[in-house]
Amino acid sequence: MPALLGPVSRCGFSAALLVLWTVFAGFSRAGAEHAATATLPAAFSDLLPHFQVEPEDEYIVKNKPVTLTCRSTPATQIYFKCNGEWVHQDDHLIERTVDPATALPIMQVTIDITRQQVEKIFGLDQYWCQCVAWSTTGTQKSQKAYIRIAYLRKNFEEEPQGKEVALDQEVLLRCHPPEGVPQPEVEWQRNEDILNPESDPNFFVTADHNLIIRKARMADTGNYTCVAKNIVARRKSTSAAVLVYVNGGWSTWTTWSSCSAVCGRGWQKRSRSCTNPTPLNGGSSCEGQNIQKSVCVATCPVDGGWSEWSKWSACGADCSMWRTRECTQPSPGTGGKDCQGLDLQSLNCTSEQCPQTVSGAEDVALYVGVVAVALCLTLLLIVVVLVYRRKKEGLDADVADSSILTTGFQPMGIKPSKPGVWAPRPRRPPLHSKNSHLLTIQPDLTTTTTSYQGTLRSRHDTTGKFSMTNGTLLDPLPNGSHTLHNGKLNPDPPEFVSRLSTQSYFKTLPRDVANASYGTFNFLGGRLTIPNTGISLLIPPEAIPRGKIYEIYLTVQRKEDLRLPLAGCQTLLGPVVSCGPPGVVLSRPVILSMDHCSDGCLDNWALRLKKQNYEGVWEDVLLMGEELVSEPYYCQLEAETCRLFSEQLGTFALVGESLHMGAAKRLRLVLFSDAYCSTLEYNIRVYCMDDTQEVFKEVMQMERQLGGRLIDEPHILLFKDSYHNLRLSIHDMPQAHWRSKLLAGYQEIPFYHIWNGSQRYLHCTFTLERLSLSTCELTCQLCVWQVEGEGQSFSLDFNIAKDTRAIDAEFMLMDSSASALAGPSAFQIPYLIRQKICSSLDAPCPNGADWRMLAQRLKLERHMSFFASKASPTSVILDLWEAQHFHSGNINQLAAVMADIGKQEAMIFLVSDGEC
Predict the structure, then answer these.
(1) What's the mean pLDDT in 762-782?
(2) Could you give the 3-state DSSP secondary structure of residue 764?
(3) How confident is the model at residue 37 (pLDDT cuts 50, 70, 90)?
């Protein structure tokens, strides 16, 4: 149909003629479908097409095509026209249904519009499409749908600027977002928290995206960021620091103090403080004096003085007389002292002056007083006796009770322990100094071996496994010292796989022995390594509980076998690694090391650790930079390696989400060619892979099977999140001897094929042709660059007939170490020395010479809170050191760090193996 519609539209036939042509074309087709659409039932022949769904405006996000839909009833045909040109029939997807309510036939057509189609239209402001529907009566056109390529520039046209404002002052922060389609929305953040003007009316966002703070408050101090976002990306401006300061103000004056002089002229003062309000955030202080003084005159104190005694009074009935005086000469005043002494005196009268009274009454009163005194003394004596007896009885009861308790703790007559029966362990002799044991005490491992009762293995099948008996783990040396057996595990991988294939946790693992490692481990720990991949699993000592033996595996999952969900700007930054079996109990976190290919700048990325659960669903378990020490996972990101502390085994993947276009992945560019060339054609293969060892290993193995050879050393290229493809081209070939058989001037690898990271072997093949079989020298330039981005150019100059396969071994990391190491052989620091270091550095030291200084010397300050959350921070630091320096570590450097800290443990690194 489009082949017919094209010429019709170009020749300008009328709509009626076009309908007749359509009917004719419908009847001329052999297919029953087209014949059915040529005519309508007679009941609907007079109806014009009516659009139920018309195409709407769409935006192309990155490289994802958009779909336009058009639905009409009744209609014999519907076709799309884009920018005046008919869309080819093969690009239409047609569905035919019947409206159950009206019995009218319904036709729905959809087409996909790609980014390339829109970009090919040069000189047009907009790309549009509309659909045309035909019936036997006539035609109808739908509305135009405009398709635009969505984007958002990186740089803001105007960014907010920091300000210092006074309290209650109005603040204006300007923001002009970057150019984008569709128009980006703008929101404001304060200290990474989104501002909501609806919930806080103190904030107001203008129509041109500026932020107004109506009255600056102290709580409004912070870093303000303008965020622009649309369906493509999200951009953040530089933060603008707003500092709200407060100028100081005087408080009210205090009351005047008392006069400084007790008597006479003195001073008194009052004060005020600059606290109403107190100056804050650099606000100005109060001006003026905070203390005022004034002259005062204090009245001197007057001490009181006695007046003269009055005359004696007449002798009274009690045969006494008295006289008085007053403190009135002078009276005390202004704090003076009162008069000292008595103001009343009495004196017995003489017998002549005392009146006579009845002697009998006086005697009776005397006798009554004596009797009363006697009764009081008797009652007092009875009370004392009762109290004394009660106390004595209570004391006897306590003594009786205590004797009963004491008899309960008397020795029971324990017999001496016989041989083979448990007996208390003798205590160690006291130490002479704090650190003297580090150099003088011989290591004693017998206490470790005797603490475990029974066999170390509960299963009877011990063939081909790491066997341990019930005897001691240490054999005596001639000099009386002890040594710990270093068990290297060399299990037969095929046998191990077949044995574990019957277990449920291993059924889903691939049988790829070259990309897996297996071992049997106990509380002494060990290490699993997949050679030449940069992937290893460190099992620290005491990570496996004592008395337990685990068979642990480590393997690399093939990316094409997994369905790792990646959304938006997310990308896989490293291998997918499985370690297990899942569900084993660990006392301490193990360390899983694997390569990554991010640019290493955490500001450019939101890095997430994903873990596959038992149902096969991927879950986010950690966001880099927001780790919680209470969680079972913690990551340390190095330049090319990610080290995961995990208390659980499972399948892990490192996924990065770019925060802006500055984020980049490291690509490793590797060039291969045919090892032997006997024809005129010669192929050069350029691999563009993630810069990780495991991908490089697989490419090397594949090329060896193909018989390829490495013709140049690998190169690194930063591939940015700019939505642009990667282009490769060859230039400057000698035209007299060589020519390219490619029709295009360059080759491209789509952006999303690289950014997604799910395809491992992305490469381009350049087929060259030499004009003569005698031509063996090839010189050219290989250019690799990202469209509108950075690139590299490599000069190639080699002999195609010369066998240079020896270069392969130079760039292929040949890891000859065992894939499984158990016990002390897996660690550089001997087990006993490690324990001494931990016991010395775990305890806090006032001068800081403890595990914190060790972390600083090893440049691990960022993880202080993580180390502090562990029972032994030093052991976790040493675990990380072991994971980092297994192949290249220098134990003398660690000894130098210990010596720099000032610990005598630095000397124990020089102890011989026999002493360890």
Answers:
(1) 86
(2) strand
(3) very low
| Whole-number average pLDDT of the chain | 76
Please classify residue 243 by burial: count the beta carbons closer than 10 Å to its beta carbon, then call 0-12 exposed, 13-18 middle and 19+ buried: middle
Judge contact between 658 and 571, C-beta under 8 A.
yes
Q: How confident is the model at residue 615 (pLDDT cuts 50, 70, 90)?
A: confident
CA dist., res. 719 & res. 762, Å (int): 14
Beta strand 482-484 with 474-476: parallel, antiparallel or unpaired?
Answer: antiparallel
- What is the CB neighbour count within 10 angstroms for residue 511? 12
Torsion from C-alpha of 526, 531, 535, 540, nearest 10 degrees = 10
Name the E strands within 143-238: 145-152, 163-166, 171-173, 180-181, 185-190, 193-194, 203-205, 211-213, 222-229, 234-236
- DSSP assigned state of 456: S
Amino acid at 33: E
Domains and CATH numbers, the chain: 50-151 (2.60.40.10), 153-245 (2.60.40.10), 249-298 (2.20.100.10), 513-823 (2.60.220.30), 828-915 (1.10.533.10)
| Closest alpha carbon to 778 in 808, 736, 741, 742 | 736
The 10s digit of each residue's pLDDT in 872-915 is 999 999 999 999 887 666 788 888 888 888 765 545 554 433 33
Sign of CA dihedral 605, 611, 612, 613: negative
Which contiguous run of DSSP H or E holds residue 536?
Answer: strand 535-539
DSSP string, 547-578: T--EEEEEEEEPGGG------TTEEE-S-EEE
Q: How do residues 122-133 score in pLDDT, each as one tens digit?
A: 555 688 999 999
Tokens 């809170």, located at residue: 865
- Tokens read off for 386: 């009762």
Residue 93 CB contacts under 8 Å (≥ 6 apart), including other chains: 109, 110, 111
- Residue 343 pLDDT greater than 80, yes or no: yes
Residue 259 CB contacts under 8 Å (≥ 6 apart), including other chains? 266, 267, 268, 296, 297, 298
Identify which has the larger pLDDT, 437 or 542: 542
HSE-CB at 875 with a 13 A cutoff on CA atoms is 19
857 neighbors 903 (Cβ within 8 angstroms): no
Contact between 104 and 74 under an 8 Å Cβ cutoff? The reply is yes
d(CA 713, CA 118): 40
* pLDDT value at 502 more than 90: no
Question: Judging by beta carbons within 10 Å of its beta carbon (0-12, 13-18, 19+), is residue 910 exposed, middle or buried?
Answer: exposed
In this predicted structure, what is the pLDDT of residue 513? 65
Q: Which whole number is the average pLDDT over 263-274? A: 84
- Structure letter (DSSP) for residue 453: -
Say if CB 824 and CB 484 are below 8 A apart. Answer: yes
Report the pLDDT averaged over residues 365-393.
79
Instruction: Report, as an integer, the average pLDDT of 55-61.
Output: 90
- Which of 85-94, 534-543, 710-719 has the largest mean confidence? 534-543
Q: Is the pLDDT of residue 479 over 50?
A: no
Instruction: Spell out the residues 6+ positions from residue 818 whose beta carbon is closer than 8 angstroms to its own.
Output: 488, 489, 490, 529
DSSP state of 80: E
For residue 79, what are the CA distances in angstroms to 27, 108, 145, 384, 782? 18, 10, 14, 123, 46
Global pTM?
0.48
Which CA distances in Å does 414 have to 289, 423, 425, 728?
85, 11, 16, 88
Question: Quick one: pLDDT band at residue 62, thresholds 50, 70, 90?
Answer: confident
What one-character-per-residue DSSP string does 777-841 give?
Answer: EEEEEEEEEETTS-EEEEEEEEETTS--THHHHHHS----S-SEEEGGGG-SS-HHHHHHHHHHH
Say if residue 131 is exposed, middle or buried (CB neighbours under 10 Å; 0-12, 13-18, 19+): buried
Contacts of 609 (CB under 8 A, 6+ apart): 620, 621, 622, 624, 633, 635, 644, 652, 653, 654, 655
> Pairing relation of β-strands 58-61 and 145-152?
parallel
Length, in residues, of the chain? 916
